[in-house]
Amino acid sequence: MTSPDSAPSVDLGPAAALSCRECGHRVPLGPVFACEECFGPLEIAYDFSAYDTEELRKRIEAGPANIWRYAPLLPVPADVADKPNINPGWTKLVQADNLARELGVTGGLYVKDDSGNPTHSFKDRVVAQALEAARAFGFTTLSCSSTGNLAGAVGAAAARAGLRSCVFIPHDLEQGKVVMAAVYGGELVGIEGNYDDVNRFCSELIGDPAGEGWGFVNVNLRPYYAEGSKTLAYEICEQLGWRLPDQLVVPIASGSQLTKIDKGLKELIELGLVEDRPYKIFGAQAEGCSPVSVAYKAGHDVVRPQKPDTIAKSLAIGNPADGPYVLDIARRTGGAVEDVNDEQIVDAIKLLARTEGIFAETAGGVTVGVTRKLIENGLLDPSLTTVVLNTGDGLKTLDAVASDTGLTATIRPSLDSFREAGLGS
Amino acid sequence: MTSPDSAPSVDLGPAAALSCRECGHRVPLGPVFACEECFGPLEIAYDFSAYDTEELRKRIEAGPANIWRYAPLLPVPADVADKPNINPGWTKLVQADNLARELGVTGGLYVKDDSGNPTHSFKDRVVAQALEAARAFGFTTLSCSSTGNLAGAVGAAAARAGLRSCVFIPHDLEQGKVVMAAVYGGELVGIEGNYDDVNRFCSELIGDPAGEGWGFVNVNLRPYYAEGSKTLAYEICEQLGWRLPDQLVVPIASGSQLTKIDKGLKELIELGLVEDRPYKIFGAQAEGCSPVSVAYKAGHDVVRPQKPDTIAKSLAIGNPADGPYVLDIARRTGGAVEDVNDEQIVDAIKLLARTEGIFAETAGGVTVGVTRKLIENGLLDPSLTTVVLNTGDGLKTLDAVASDTGLTATIRPSLDSFREAGLGS
């Protein structure tokens, strides 16, 4: 018997093994997500030992304008950029001077705008990773449970890769979301039940012969999938000129994105690609689904599940798997976790659009709103460099702003009517 | 009196003057769009004489991942990348192997996917140019008439630049489009009338003191605005490895985009950045608004206006200003102009989504549908390298595909129900 590390059966680049986040137990790379010893979450362990810092930096800078520029740091084969995938990433880091003025930030404020991804949310990053893992493991169907952004990302990625896709959603989703998920031509199955029922069913399917050959991006491919969020950290630092920001404001759904951004920043420090100095990570939730924020404020280490009721549906996970890790990171780095209510979310969406021309999804309203609140509370230092994440696109959550966003005036097509309405220069 | 060329009053980089497309009369750079001699359209005349080919290529390749990498070839100041703008472009050129197989293209098929722009349409390219011209001329309000994509692009660009915006639309637009245009916080004025009434009113406003200081991106800033489409040609060639494609399929609304793509390709040849060899440009229209296609097929040089009736609303210009130029280019290059009906547009949207994971606006359905038709007709050679433009995002025209895009099946959350529906692997 060979050791798990010495003979990985698949080529996923620098990925050496899966390692349990809780007990450190290592197993070979495979489509598993929970530790056989302690049921803790498995994550990718890498072998970066061969890298020379400056060679690596040059290799990255010469790479494609998408996440595959970081292939040496991801669980993907070295030739990943040549395979059909949706190639997300290298989205804009917008220098948000107008927003900074409104919020009183003097140390530099940036919005990492992931609405520029192929299906207009950060989910393209994680799905692109899961797709490579699915290929490596010989899966022929890409699947997931979803209520929105993820469904589109999986449908699009599978289409490009020539894999079958089968996405499970609650049967009573709004028609617009169904269309966005269905247009890529994969199978889209409505489950009579709520999102929890959909998830439970998917877990059942993984253990059944009917699910053989199926890669569920956020279940049995989760360790690979989750690594996609590291690329947000890489891009932010490279776009800042290989520099760590002082403060980051990151939305919390399952909490996975925030923990992987922290992992990515630590890797850049260890690899010598950025200077080793402190950074603070702040978590952002909607008040209507704020289990991590509530636990943070109460000083708890565990997260008590909530029943979500918020317009920020892409963040509405009442029982976030990575909640305890998020609490640890926020406390360890000197950050915090905060939440805003629906009205504040809408105000923040409009603020970002009005100041920077970026139309964010409700999740972007959450991070911008929380940034404002953290400054008011004195928890976020406006004199430090701050990066706020927008992880999705306002076109997908038009309803959130529709009720009070409309015409300034209605006039007849005449100069008289124009002047009567007080519209002149 | 100095000659118009010797003393441009504004710094717009290599732009030397405005030149009439019909009679060649030159005037200094300014916010004018029609020749004072013959009423022909004015366009930008450049001075590229100082460029060394290889130095220029290196300068472009070292530039930012947006249209400003081509600043040396555009009417913008050299430091344009440092000013607040929405920085569109450098969108993906997707190697569409799956679509190629379906269409029988063997020479290489690519989709230039402009849904990746900041407000998810190619309009960001032209508005970003107009914004720079507006700044150069000291305008304080950015304006336009629009029924959709342009309104959002103007609103977003003005917000980023800190200019006032005032956009005019027909008062009875669908609520979704109104929200997309209004969210950026500028003034959005509904005009009681149709799009023609809106346009007429805008022309009146330009001549009135009430419109002083206003830059209408597609009227008095049109010569600058239109140049933005050249960047599509530049990017396509650079992304192909500084190579001309053999064939391009471009949508026709006013026809400006197609004529400027031709201009961009010719500039690259003249500058030595690509090899001088033939290329064919094909124009694509919707049957319900096909004045150029009708004229092309009839062998006419003039275009007879139509009353538009098509789901491809972003292409629904019944009296396209650049129609005659488009006819000339299609004939001169050995291309053609073709049209597809609404059903074919929807089929093509789905085909592109299913094969490449790209969810296109109706305009993208038009170009993909026309590509298919041109191959069937023998007018487009499937053995040659072909680039098809997708100029917008499917999220903005969900209604076009909503009626027959939905759930594959609805099941109970049980394996039995799953198997009964025939969904197993």
From TrEMBL, chains A, B:
CDD domains: Thr-synth_1
Chain positions with N6-(pyridoxal phosphate)lysine modification: K123
Domain Tryptophan synthase beta chain-like PALP residue range list: 88-392
Gene Ontology biological process: isoleucine biosynthetic process; L-serine catabolic process; L-threonine catabolic process; threonine biosynthetic process
Assigned EC number: 4.2.3.1
Keyword Lyase annotated: yes
Signal peptide: none
Keyword Lyase: yes
GO molecular function annotation: L-serine ammonia-lyase activity; threonine deaminase activity; threonine synthase activity
InterPro entries the record matches: Ser/Thr_Dehydratase, Thr_synthase-like, TrpB-like_PALP, TrpB-like_PALP_sf
Pfam families named among the record's database cross-references: PALP
Stated family: Belongs to the threonine synthase family.
Protein name: Threonine synthase
Lineage, uppermost ranks: Bacteria, Bacillati, Actinomycetota, Actinomycetes, Kitasatosporales
